[in-house]
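Project outcomes to date are best conveyed with an example. Our students and postdoctoral researchers have been running inverse folding experiments weekly, and each run begins with a structure described purely in C-alpha cells. The record below, which covers 161 residues, was selected by the lab manager from last quarter's runs and is presented without edits.
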C-alpha cells in the first residue's frame, strides 16, 4: 500500500515539473548531453577514449564563451601505463597513467589546435586483480582531468582572441 502511494506521488509530481519546462542540465536528449550545444565531440578510440569523450561532452555542454557557431572537436588520445617503482622481487609498487590529448576544434570560421596532458599515479596492490582495478580507476581519473584541461584550454584560446 505504501509503495502504491509513493508511486502515485512521484507520478503526480512529474507532470508539473515537465509542464514548467524543467530539464536537468546533464540529462541525455536524443543521445546528446545538451540540447542546442554548439560543440560536437567526435568519437575517440578505445575505452579511455570513450570516457574522455563523455567527460568532454559534460565539460562543454554549457558552451564556450565567444563561440557562436557549430564546431566539431576531434581529439587524438595517447595513453600509456608507466611502472615507476619496483620491489626487491621485481614487482611494480608504483605506477602512473600518462595521457596526452591533441585536439582540433574546427567550424566554418573557427580553427583551434592544441594539446593537454595529464599524469595520474597509483600504488600497485599485491593482488593481480587489484592492479587491474587500480589501473582502471587511474585511467578514469586521468580522462576526467584531461577533459577539464582541454575544455579550459579551448576557453582560454577563445578569451585571448
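After processing, the design step wrote out the following sequence:
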Amino acid at each position: 500500500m505504501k509503495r502504491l502511494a509513493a508511486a502515485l506521488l512521484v507520478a503526480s509530481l512529474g507532470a508539473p515539473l515537465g509542464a514548467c519546462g524543467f530539464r536537468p542540465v546533464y540529462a541525455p536528449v536524443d543521445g546528446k548531453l545538451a540540447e542546442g550545444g554548439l560543440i560536437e565531440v567526435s568519437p575517440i578510440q578505445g575505452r579511455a577514449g570513450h570516457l574522455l569523450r563523455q567527460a568532454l561532452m559534460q565539460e562543454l555542454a554549457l558552451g564556450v564563451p565567444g563561440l557562436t557557431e557549430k564546431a566539431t572537436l576531434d581529439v587524438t588520445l595517447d595513453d600509456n601505463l608507466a611502472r615507476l617503482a619496483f620491489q626487491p622481487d621485481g614487482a611494480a609498487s608504483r605506477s602512473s597513467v600518462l595521457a596526452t590529448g591533441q585536439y582540433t576544434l574546427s567550424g566554418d570560421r573557427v580553427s583551434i589546435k592544441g594539446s593537454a596532458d595529464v599524469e595520474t599515479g597509483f600504488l600497485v596492490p599485491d593482488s593481480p586483480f587489484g592492479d587491474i582495478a587500480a589501473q582502471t580507476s587511474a585511467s578514469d581519473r586521468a580522462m576526467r582531468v584531461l577533459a577539464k584541461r582541454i575544455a579550459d584550454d579551448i576557453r582560454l584560446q577563445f578569451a585571448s582572441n
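The beta strands are 39-41, 71-86, 92-107, 111-123. Helices lie at 2-19, 46-59, 128-160. The training component of this project remains on track.
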